[in-house]
Design goal:
homodimer, alpha+beta, about 35% strand
Chain lengths: ~240, ~240
């Protein structure tokens, strides 16, 4: 089998820094974790918060701390520092090779979609962001790693897309439309969701938007791990 | 412009953990850093060393510490812990949006290739691994971000490929052959280098091998950041 992870991420219109931070890190047992945080508001302040949360979480995961405990620790740190005045959402998707599962940890009102073949489920149990109070608990879902599994995680920019024009996005319907294609790549699914949101916002995203797609395929190829990153850098023109 | 980073990575034959650790992380200014470490020997011990070095470096980079200082700090930490008995190579490639440059930090005897159009240079100034003594200095090279720039970084598994059969790999010639193609993607270049090494090792890599390619293109597309990861997980079958 092969696990593929795809990310597509865009900043709020005319804001140079995204309040969303995403990192993919190796776990001590050889699996990987995707850690996505969305700091309250946008720009530099939100970036500092989401970076702090992600750093805290990946530092703990690297030490072997379990995902749920890492989320609670990040929440306590944020609450202690900001006294509940600043909140931050968090999603962790971990490929755990010890248990043979994908562990989803969620402190984010935004739901998560789970697709198995033609069946599309929505995880929408109530979940509150980090930093809101002492004793914030994450919602944890564990799913066996098996072919034809696709998981879609996103920040609230995707939910709010189009709302200011009264045309909110139907995320489930967009996922369903793409999944009806012949075995879409996870990057294609992430790109399509992001493009639809940006279109609904008339090419001026009203918020930072991040979309993560995790897909398990039956593919048995080489044993090569691959990663690719594409980073537009128009900003650098200012300095060169 | 767009910066593309591609990674291809394989374990030593019949060893479940790679002694090479690679992470791509956001820098505080919005750029990214690729951090690659290769711990002495192979398997679990080497993994622990290279993970420790990478964690140390990315933690410091996140705090705004400059790359060279982060490399020195990681070396001192390793030397203090292991008294010079365990060494680890380190490469950092940072896209620095403040200076409009790519900063290459190297504590690795393995050279680095820089391609600009048809011109291929090799950075081969002497460079020693971390942890060998107090006061280890990295070799630092700063290159302006401009279209048609391609940088190739690798661990010594690539250099040693084929040597046990007396057929060492000519890395420069392989790069030149791929670059003569019509604008190869960085993933294609990384995959070709890795595949050639694995072929010379008769499909049983004698060492962990990691290849990183950084490419700058003139592409002006959307402002979307993208990342994709592909992870073979045959190992998980044991647990499921």
């Amino acid at each position: 089998m092969e696990v593929q992870i795809a990310v597509a991420k865009v900043n709020k219109y005319a804001v140079s820094e995204s309040g969303d931070t995403l990192e993919v890190v190796e776990r001590p047992n050889g699996g990987v974790s995707v850690v996505l945080a969305d700091g309250q508001s946008s720009g530099r302040g939100a970036k500092a918060i989401s970076q702090m949360v992600v750093r805290k979480v990946i530092g703990l995961l690297a030490e072997g701390v379990r995902d749920g405990a890492a989320a609670r620790a990040a929440s306590d740190t944020l609450f202690t520092e900001k006294q509940g005045k600043v909140i931050c959402t968090l999603n962790i998707a971990s490929l755990d090779l010890n248990s043979g599962t994908i562990v989803l940890t969620r402190n984010n009102p935004a739901s998560v979609f789970i697709c198995r073949g033609e069946e599309i489920d929505c995880l929408e149990e109530e979940s509150i962001p980090l930093g809101t109070s002492r004793n914030v608990r994450p919602v944890i879902t564990e799913i066996a790693i098996e072919p034809s599994l696709t998981i879609v995680i996103y920040t609230d920019g995707l939910i709010h897309a189009g709302k200011r024009r009264g045309m909110p996005m139907d995320i489930g319907a967009t996922i369903r439309a793409v999944m009806e294609d012949q075995d879409p790549s996870p990057q294609m699914l992430a790109d399509t969701l992001l493009a639809e949101a940006v279109r609904l916002d008339e090419n001026r995203p009203a918020d930072d938007i991040s979309v993560v797609v995790v897909k398990v395929t039956a593919r048995d190829g080489d044993n090569v791990r691959r990663m690719s990153v594409r980073l537009p850098i128009e900003g650098v023109m200012r300095f060169s």
